[in-house]
């Protein structure tokens, strides 16, 4: 695992003699799970190449679904991973947002019990001055924000020079480990969690909500500017607003996608449940013991708690969907509440964007007083978010 361009596919090709397509530009080449079976020092080995969470052709949610489906299929077939390789470019000046997201998702997928089977592979040493690369390597190894927690719990870090011998040394270490399940495999198969309820799914949900909040604040700033702007500036503001609306639409689409995944199980799990009851029972009983929760990262929580969503009056009665009737006497199930809250949020955003459109239309036709009046109305709608 690792970001695009970190050397995952190149490593597989070197270690196994494969010829998977390797990307040399900015676009990703691995958009699905690729496997290579071969014999190494008398042992049957399968190397698995997966897309990164910065894929140029797929969203992070799509990538998570692809990886999860494959892992669940392997787990149900009692094929456990001997090790997990995480690739990182030593030539990267800093651990930026994309690298941090990939590493965070890696930790959420693996969980703390699998850390001792992790090998961090640093690549692109030939692209950086030796002294600078070594200093960076030492920082990554000792900083609690980076790889230090992995190494402290038994993981290893390697310097890979893109040579066959280097790749084989790393492979030799990995296949010597005792196979172990990953956290997400246990969460979905043994704990029967939906994808959004897993540590990895909850992390993606948190990121989506951060993006939504950021765009909401930007829209509020545009509305504020509108009060101070003349007619000549309104077109620019409307263009900015439209761009924000499109970005918000993207994140709400992603949120809906993750929500839909939370109400249906991965394809491999659905296929298993359609088989005979005895087979399904055997698959569950053969699963290894439960791993601990994912590696703690500061105050970040990996559990998904139902949000306390309060719909303000009078919109609650007139416009927004109400909780299912059964919740009057019983605590609403987590997935049921999630679906209801998503619908409430979608309704609010729809009203908000309609209010913004009305604001621009009225601003063109009205006076400064009308601009102020309409802007205040839109701010009231925005407050619902």
TrEMBL record:
Keywords: Coiled coil
Coiled coil stretches, renumbered: 205-254
Domain spans labelled G: 2-59
Composition-biased stretches (Polar residues): 258-278
Keyword Coiled coil: yes
Record-level Gene Ontology MF annotations: GTP binding
Origin: domain of life: Eukaryota
Pfam families registered for this protein in UniProt: MMR_HSR1
Chain intervals for the UniProt region annotation (Disordered): 255-328
Protein name (record): G domain-containing protein
Species in which this protein is naturally found: Collybiopsis luxurians FD-317 M1
